[in-house]
Write a structure and sequence with these properties.
- By secondary structure, this protein is mainly α.
- The protein has 9 helices and 2 strands; from the N terminus they run αβααβαααααα.
- Helix 4 crosses helix 6.
- The longest helix is centred in the last third of the chain and has 24 residues.
- The protein starts with a helix and ends in a 5-residue tail after the last helix.
Length: 197
């Protein structure tokens, strides 16, 4: 049975938003419960969950069903390392001079300023694969970013420093501030995850 496309898209969009915003955190995802919550049958919910598995936002445990991915210190470290590596890859593709186009990081629909910075840089490069990779990683980093906001201090000046480097198109400063941004989080994984440290 194939679900109505509009219903499938509605369920997918709402479920993804709810997952990114912390709904259903740390729990198994029951199709019937979700179907009731999103006023849909099981089929569009299952389709949405399968799409989210493909995006790395939901997992399918060996025991069956669907669940929120666990975030342990090793996985968190891997996410931050990949985010830094991807940011560095984007920077490698930036031209030495921006020409007449500047990189503008204006008001964004993205929840976290670092997501807007990385996305803006990738868009400026103009490489579709880099943009898609950054957007996908931003989604997977969303839970960690929520935890950062709750558990780390001094985030505003830190991101302002990154943004100033981007707005000045100072590649050395962008590299340095992005590296510092990620390394701080790599050193603070226990604290970010609420494990102390």
């Amino acid at each position: 049975m194939v679900a109505d496309h509009n219903t499938s898209e509605r369920v997918y969009a709402r479920l993804k938003t709810d997952l990114l915003d912390g709904g259903w955190d740390n729990s198994r995802l029951n199709i019937n419960t979700l179907a009731d919550a999103y006023y849909a049958s099981a089929t569009p919910v299952r389709e949405a969950l399968l799409r989210l598995v493909g995006e790395g936002l939901v997992e399918m445990p060996v025991s069956g069903g669907f669940a929120m991915p666990r975030m342990d210190p090793v996985q968190a470290a891997d996410h931050y390392a990949f985010s830094l590596a991807l940011g560095q890859l984007v920077l490698q593709h930036l031209p030495a001079h921006p020409g007449s186009r500047g990189i503008m990081i204006g008001p964004s629909a993205l929840a976290y300023p670092i997501d807007a910075v990385l996305t803006s840089l990738a868009v400026f490069v103009g490489n579709v694969a880099l943009v898609q990779s950054v957007v996908s990683l931003n989604d997977r980093m969303h839970r960690l970013r929520r935890m950062e906001e709750r558990r780390l201090k001094g985030l505003a000046p830190e991101i302002e420093n990154v943004i100033e480097g981007v707005e000045q198109y100072n590649l050395k400063r962008i590299r340095s501030t992005l590296r510092s941004y990620h390394r701080r989080r790599q050193r603070s994984i226990g604290k970010i995850l609420g494990l102390g440290g």
